[in-house]
Design goal:
Layout (H helix, E strand, L loop, with lengths): L4 H9 L17 E7 L3 H14 L4 E4 L15 E2 L8 H13 L1 H5 L10 E5 L2 H17 L4 E4 H7 L14 E5 L3 E2 L2 H14 L3 E3 L4 E7 L2 E7 L4 E8 L5 H6 L8 E12 L7 E4 L4 E5 L4 E12 L7 H14 L8 E11 L6 E4 L5 E5 L9 H14 L13 H4 L17
Parallel strand pairs: 1-2, 1-11, 2-8, 4-13, 11-18
Antiparallel strand pairs: 3-7, 4-6, 5-6, 9-10, 10-11, 12-15, 12-16, 13-14, 14-15, 17-18
Helix pairs in contact: 2-7, 2-10, 3-10
The structure holds flavin-adenine dinucleotide.
Length: about 425
């Protein structure tokens, strides 16, 4: 079933009786060419690109809950390609280009909104760093623009420019960055993968990974055993636990990150604004709610709920930069489990077991990575070679110390599952 303006009109005039379920609900088969563990954004995108780019359709995505119930439906929806370090820079550039054609490609409204992101700076040293980052982004082929104080004031007059501790000197802007509706991204990929024959199996937890003679042979699940030639992890915050099913210890530590939404307000925040000193990032949803987040809750946990001190810190940062928001009421908050690596950069690589593949360690940044991650992971699974945009996401960098991409990593208690 394709979506179009005509279709919406027709359904509107005929009582909306023609809409059909967006994907099938199949029982698991006994065997697949590829089994993907995790029906979040990355697992679903990987299944889609395996089918579309590589013609591999005998694929199952196994999800222990419901599709999109993990971090893909819990994030603050920011999409950008303004990374500085080689490795991440080319990867996120690849991903943003895929975002730009995604809705047409999937025939699905993911509410992609390239409203621009502005990273604030507050002193000369930070401005120098912003200039350096901006030049690196432009050299990568993406857009970056340095805004002085006056130019920024015209775009975002509500900011507290004369804040005593953090006076705002300007910002680094990327106009092609923005937001997308997170769960619609999962649904769009799910529907498109299903249409190409991928089995999406919900309420199916993987409880074991079968390995014989150093090679993966399948998985054990709450819906019975499934044989597979290849098994691909895409379990995000649960990566450490799922890898342990195959006897692996990953350099991953799981933490909670919270998100917050205010009551609906009239349009005020037109862009995504980040205030790095308070680690605050904020945007306004189409419904009017301000969507914002801050730091991790800095203790390892698998509980998808946050704590009050971090909520208080986030509100402080918000009001410090935007005092007018002091009167807004907070509507709700939630937490998601983040898979943090020591260097803050992801892993997309072979596992040290034949036929087993790893996609994890997305830290704060995995939503914007969704199309890029799906496309490069599918390439790795299909060809057994890394995609050109993801050659540095190797697992062995943590053992050898070579090729680390230091994006402010977290944690000294890896894989305490
Ligand atoms: C509050 C918050 C804000 C964020 N903000 C941003 C942002 O603005 N921009 C950005 O780029 N990123 C952001 N992120 C990060 C981003 O959401 C994640 O990095 C990304 O969604 C992770 O990939 P995923 O979508 O595949 O994960 P998930 O949606 O978590 O998918 C993993 C799936 O695996 C399933 N699973 C786990 N174990 C098993 C098992 N044993 N068997 C079967 N299934 C299993 C889980 O149920 C889950 O559905 C944020 C995250 C949080 C929590």
């Amino acid at each position: 079933m394709r979506f179009s303006g005509w279709r919406v009109l027709k359904e509107g005039l005929t009582g909306n009786t023609g809409w059909r379920p967006q994907w099938r609900n199949p029982a698991p088969k006994a065997e697949y060419d590829v089994v993907i563990i995790g029906g979040g954004g990355h697992g679903l995108a990987t299944a889609y690109y395996l089918a579309r780019e590589h013609g591999i359709t005998n694929v199952a995505v196994l999800e222990k809950g419901y599709l999109g119930g993990g971090n893909v439906g819990r994030n603050t929806t920011i999409v950008r390609a303004n990374y500085y370090l080689p490795g991440n820079s080319e990867f996120y550039s690849h991903s943003l280009k895929l975002w730009e054609g995604l809705e047409q490609e999937l025939n699905y409204n993911a509410m992609m909104s390239q409203r621009g992101i502005i990273n604030l700076f507050h002193n000369d040293a930070q401005r120098d760093a912003a200039v350096r980052r901006g030049n690196a982004i432009i050299n990568q082929g993406d857009d970056a623009e340095l805004l002085g104080r006056d130019a920024l004031r015209r775009l975002a007059p509500y900011l507290n420019f004369d804040n005593n501790r953090f006076p705002i000197m300007g910002g680094l802007m990327q106009r092609r960055a923005g937001t997308a509706r997170h769960d619609a991204v999962a649904w769009g990929y799910a529907r498109a993968a299903d249409m190409r024959g991928v089995d999406l199996i919900q309420n199916c937890e993987v409880t074991g990974i079968d390995v014989a003679g150093g090679k993966v042979t399948g998985v054990q699940t709450t819906r019975g055993p499934i044989r597979a030639k290849k098994v691909a992890l895409a379990a995000a915050g649960r990566s450490g636990q799922v890898a342990a099913l195959a006897g692996l210890t990953l350099p991953i530590e799981s933490h909670v990150l919270q998100a917050f939404v205010s009551e609906g307000l009239k349009p005020i925040v037109d862009h995504v604004i980040t205030f790095a000193e308070g680690h605050l990032y904020i945007s306004q949803s189409d419904k009017g709610g301000l969507v914002f987040g801050s730091y991790l809750d800095f203790y390892a946990s698998y509980a998808a709920r946050g704590n009050l001190p971090m909520a208080e810190h986030t509100m402080e940062a918000c009001v410090a930069m935007m005092p007018a928001l002091g009167k807004a009421r907070l509507l709700r908050s939630w937490g998601g489990i983040m898979d943090m690596t020591p260097d803050g950069s992801p892993i997309i690589d072979h596992a040290p077991i034949d036929g087993l593949y790893l996609n994890c360690g997305w830290c704060y940044g995995g939503f914007k990575a969704t199309p890029g991650s799906g496309s490069v992971y599918a390439h790795l699974i299909a060809t057994d070679r890394p995609h050109g945009a993801a050659t540095r996401f190797r697992l062995d960098r943590f053992r050898s110390g070579r090729g680390l991409m230091d994006e402010e990593g977290t944690g000294a208690q890896h894989n305490l599952h």
